[in-house]
Amino acid sequence: MVLLDGKALSAKIKEELKEKNQFLKNKGIQSSLAVILVGDDMASQAYVNSKAKACEECGIKSLVYHLNKNTTQNELLALIHTLNHDDSVHGILVQLPLPSHICKDLVLESIISSKDVDGFHPINVGYLNLGLESGFLPCTPLGVMRLLKAYEIKLEGKDAVVIGASNIVGRPMATMLLNAGASVSICHIKTKDLKLYTQRADLIVVAAGSVNLLGKDGVKEGAIVIDVGINRLENGKIVGDVNFEEVSQKASYITPVPGGVGPMTIAMLLENTLKSAKNRLH
Question: Of 113, 173, 190, 246, which is least surrounded by CB within 10 A?
């Protein structure tokens, strides 16, 4: 069994991004990422802080806008409008979830696609579905693809199962695997017999947010298992969606939680931000 070490790979990528960022600085461009947080969700604050720290490590300017939970939808849209037209800002990210009185889809669509470093805008989704590299790809599935590539795992011809059908992870993950030549099945909470799909899969990506969703009886010998889930137990321990102790006994490759996909997500966010800044040169 080989552990897919996202923490080590992300550190390597960040070093490469430092050099790319310095190149842009030499050309007179200071890359910058604007992150908007609405409300006081503790997990969201932790994510925003980690993104700001990662930006600092790579020399990317971090702009954090922390708005109170009573911020209106129009006020949030006005801020995004201002950032859209600020040439010194290269990436805009709105931390999810948003308060219930704000329409998430409307907010994400309001971010101009050329600064949508999360890859959620319909235009960028269109680029992904067409197999084009012109836009920005969602950071978590992109991080998974980079992790698989780093370990020279060939995807062409493999039977892949993605558990989870969100627009943030599951759907774009399935599309990326399909674009790479894998045969893909998408499962979700309404799938009747999950094991029917996972027991025959060469590659399983689990992104459902359910502790111990995948055990050893759900995977075949030698399967590649990618755990995107992040769940906090009552004792404070962070675990994924996969029963790691069980599945690692059968898997050929597996990601740990934490230290697997999470660090890769942030690394891809930084990479997308620098891609946007580099586009400014042209």
Answer: 190
